[in-house]
Request: fold
Amino acid sequence: MTNDKIMITKKQLSATIEKLPEKFSIEDLIDKLILLDKIERAEKQSEDGETISETELEREIEKWFK
Reply:
């Protein structure tokens, strides 16, 4: 994966804020923005072919539980 900055749009930010309750904490907003960033990064990785097969995933998971 490259270290390119993933940018969100004002439209995405507005939509995220619209989904929050009338009163919310800065921490709630930051959590939502971090989630949005992770989703954007995952979509870019998928578009760039930076994924693994289900078989590879199963092998990796097996390693975690040894």
The CA atoms of residues 56 and 62 lie 10 Å apart. The chain is about 65% helix and 0% strand. Residues 10-64 form one domain.
